[in-house]
Structures are given as structure tokens and as C-alpha cells.
Amino acid sequence: MDKSSELENLKKRMQKDKSLPLREGATNLVFGEGDPDAKVMFIGEGPGFWEDKKGRPFVGNAGALLNHLLQSIKLPREKVFITNIVHYRPPENRDPEATEISAFQPYLDQMIKLIKPKLIVTLGRFSMAKFIPGVTISRVHGKKISLVWDGREIVVIPMYHPAAGLRRPEIKEELEKDFRKIPEVLKDLEEKDKEKQVEQMKLV
Ligand code: URA
For the Uracil-DNA glycosylase-like domain, which residue ranges apply (predicted)? Predict the structure, then answer.
């Protein structure tokens, strides 16, 4: 089965899962969207008002800033995959609770395993804590962190949440600076991949 179909099946399983928290108060599941073969995946916090209405991630004001940031580095939104740490809207946009994050975790993990991104950009402290627990965002944002996740080498760059950038111009500037690092990191990762392929060809 191809990746798109596997992702579609995963989405259907989530929609049917009555044990998922926040389901009762929500209009739509916000699974995530983008290129199933994306090299870079963005993980936000949780759906807000418009995301809940439309069933799509980052389509409100924070989404407009995310689109602007993507355009600023000429990375088309359709070429990346965008999702969240929880997939139903928390009431009044409150922070997701630890038990809620845990309930969605197996689905998010499966999503990452299917897409196999080389780079994960976390937006906000909740998705950051999934990969880099015990740090503060003001200290680590924009840093390239290499780690092994599910037996695979990945790079994680924690960034501020775009909604924080909308509230504070200095955070928006940091986000712009941090986004500018993405193309270079992707180029490096591609080169490493090519080197690995050459090494493998030598071994055959
Ligand atoms: N904020 C998020 O964290 N995710 C969205 O999808 C929208 C706003």
C-alpha cells in the first residue's frame, strides 16, 4: 500500500476512535496535511477555531504567519507535512493536557513513521517536549538538534509557536531568523544522503 493510502487509513482509524479525548467538543478531527514524502514536518500544538471548523491544520491567523514564513524561504506548503501534537481542538484554545498528548501520541508516532521526515520543526513548547524534554524554548529555539527517533537519525529544530509571533514582534523576528536556517539544514541532509548512497554502492 502506498504512503497516501496508509495515511488515509490512519486518519480513518483516528476518526473512528471514540476513546480519543477532546472529541466531544470538537467539530472535526485535524489529522494534518501535506506531502506524504515530505522531507520536513512541522508539528504544532492543537487546532484552533478555524482548524476545528475546516478540519485542516494552521488555517487561521497563526497559519497565515506560518504561510508567510514558508514563503520567505521559498518552501511550498504543499511540499511539507503539517500536523499537531493533539488533533481535536482543546476548549477555548487552552493548553493540551499531558493525558491528552499521550492519548494522541501513538497516532502521531505512526504518522511520523510513515512520512519519515529528515527534519522535524516543532512549533511551540508542547511538540518540542516530545523530542527534547526538560529544556526551555527561549534557550534552544533555532538550534539544530540531531537525535535518533524510532531507530532513525533525524534533525529537530525547535521554534516558537507562530501564535506567539503574532502577539510579540520580537518573537516574530526570532521565527523569521530561525526559518532562514531551514534551507541550509535541508541541503546538508540531502548531501549526507547522497554520500550514504555512494557508500552503499561501493559496498555492493
Ligand atoms: N495552532 C496550532 O498549534 N495548530 C494549528 O493547527 C493551528 C494553530
Answer: 31-180
For range 153-166, the mean pLDDT: 98
Ligand 1: atom nearest CA of 85 is 3
Q: How far apart are CA 177 and CA 168, in angstroms?
A: 15
pLDDT at 202 over 90: no
Atom of ligand 1 nearest to the CA of 50: 7
User: Looking at the 3D structure of the chain, how many domains does it have?
Assistant: 1
Question: Which CATH number does the domain housing residue 132 bear?
Answer: 3.40.470.10
Please state the separation of Cα 168 from the chain's center in Å. Answer: 22
CA pair distance 112, 131, nearest whole angstrom: 12
Residue 180 cell numbers, joined = 532562514
With contact defined as beta carbons under 8 Å apart, do 171 and 159 qualify? no
Distance, C-alpha 11 to centroid of its chain: 16
* pLDDT tens, residue by residue, 35-48: 999 999 999 999 99
Mutate to test the pocket of ligand 1, among 161, 166, 167 (most ligand atoms within 8 A of CB): 161
